[in-house]
Amino acid sequence: MSRNGPFAILFHTLFVVFMLAPLVVVCLVAFTPEGYLSLPGRVWSLRWFRAILDYPEFLRAFRDSLWLAALSSTVAIGLAVPAALAIARYRFPGREAMTALFMSPLMVPHVVLGIAFLRFFTQIGLSGTFLGLVLSHIIVIIPFALRLVLAASYGIDRRIEHAAVSLGASPAVVFRRVTLPLILPGVVSGWLLAAINSFDEVTMTVFIASPATTTLPVRMFLYIQDNIDPLIAAVSACLIALTAILLMALDRLFGLDRLFVGTGKG
Amino acid sequence: MSPDASARTTPYWLTGPALAVFLALVIIPLGMTVLLAFYDWGQYKGIVAEFTLKNFREIFSDGYFLEVFLRTLRISVLVTLFAILIGVPEAYILNRMSPAWRGLCLLAILGPLLVSVVARTLGWALLLGSNGLVNRGLMALGLIGQPLEFMFTETGVVIALVHVLIPLMILAVWASLQRLDPQIENAALSLGASRLTIWRRVILPQIVPGILSGGVIVFALAASAFASPAIIGGRRLKVAATLAYDEFLNTLNWPLGAAVAVLLLAALMILTIGTNRLVERRYSQVFE
């Protein structure tokens, strides 16, 4: 394979700067000692990070976002694992249609889903509840969970399961002791990707969240609509730092390219 | 349990729970939204469940709505164009890097995908303000005398959306680059083709499906983008998604908001399905 020339390296460097610049600027502004938006000069200050503690609504929204991500991705993976096994192993009428249906939340704009859930939840009395948030998030993150579990399910050797059956294992034991361990990398990465997507979702959630139950991105969005100050930069910087740590862990565990391209490991 | 009968019913038991959830939480809500788009609405009477085409007539006859839809289209086309122009060469460069470097660069390029779009757009709001780093940098270089207006303009929205969506284009193109056989490139090289010819005649035709599918994803997400246009564009510069949000949560004209959403959904469905058909028909041999 031939190497990249100097022009290619320059293009690439500029591109990486373009990708990282907004994130870096947010993190820098968060350390300003001033009361207005500015880059810190000689003096770096933690005052805006301390100020977050005076805004319990950010902390509460963060806690709710974590719960929401954990709950919805757990249910989503619980639905995705059997569905993926069926799609990977059986040819049955309706298989393609079902796969397309389960993947459809990727195609339907989140603003449309937000409107649909707002209308639906208002009619059945779930509007503005935490349960409503969980239900809607399950739908939008199932495609991510399904894609990674599906990739893992296609890769396993059926003969191992047949061996277990011939040795007298019941279907439940085969699933728990043979199948599940084999697809576990796909299940774990699918759960994580689903949880991250739930945590970051803002377009749909902004329609169905209420002041009492809201998520961190929605709270941040509504705050930015009113004013942009170093406080919101500090909140964002915390979020960026958290994501960076998670990202490095994910890269170590699965390899980022696998996680995104959706082939899974194994 | 006979193996035949179980093979017939098992897949339905396995997909049943997910199917039930999707029927209840996707099909019904979307169906209700489509119905809502045909309902009547009045300032004092609220939503009236009577079939009418009034909402669609209003959207197509009122210049304000047309302007919003045209702006959405313009922004999405520009974002897709820039994503292709920058993303395709970048994917190619990434593909030729050594694995160690590539891993690091992927972290920098794909990592932002996992950061909340609100935080990413906030970064652009800080960079693009009249006092922001971009303007100060350009002025320091002497390229401009006065700060350029990026905030509350389409240019600003396009820049932020290209940043938000370009990783998806790179992923799509990169996936098709990985399917290429490097020996074909070497064969062309040994037959005396120049680098540019190889690009145009050998590589590009093979990655067109990847560019098309990446382009559809980027276009669809740009056309329905909400947070970035809302933050960078402000309250004045409306796009389809922020218009629907306004109708739902400020004006409270839900049927009109639903009509906007239904039009957006229909347009994107036609585009996506059409492009997929084209890719499958025209480029099926590439996937073999």
Describe the structure.
The complex is a heterodimer of chains A (266) and B (288). With 266 residues, chain A is mostly helical. Chain A has 2 domains: 21-54 and 227-266, no CATH class; 57-226, MetI-like fold (Orthogonal Bundle). Chain A is built from 12 helices and no strands. In chain A, helix 1 packs across helix 11. Chain B has 288 residues and is an all-alpha fold. Chain B has a single domain, classed as MetI-like fold (Orthogonal Bundle), CATH 1.10.3720.10. Chain B contains 12 helices and 2 strands. In chain B, strand 1 (40-42) and strand 2 form a beta hairpin. The longest helix of chain B has 35 residues, at 3-37. Chains A and B meet through helix 1, helix 3, helix 4, helix 5 and helix 6 of A and helix 1, helix 3, helix 4, helix 5 and helix 7 of B.
* Category from helices, strands and their pairing of chain A: mainly alpha
From the coordinates shown, what is the CATH architecture of the largest domain in chain A?
A: Orthogonal Bundle
Q: Using only CA atoms, what is the Rg of chain B?
A: 24 Å
| Secondary structure: number of strands of chain A | 0
Low-confidence stretches of chain A: 262-266
The interface involving the most residues is between: A-B, 87 and 87 residues
Largest sheet of chain A: none
What proportion strand of chain B?
under 5%
- The proportion of strand residues of chain A reads under 5%
**Overall SS class of chain B:** mainly alpha
C-alpha geometry of chain A:
globular
Order of helices and strands of chain B: HEEHHHHHHHHHHH
User: What does the average pLDDT of chain B come to?
Assistant: 90
Helix content of chain B: over 70%
**CATH architecture group name of chain B:** Orthogonal Bundle
Largest sheet of chain B: 2 strands, antiparallel
**CATH homology superfamily name of the largest domain in chain A:** MetI-like
The general outline of chain B is globular
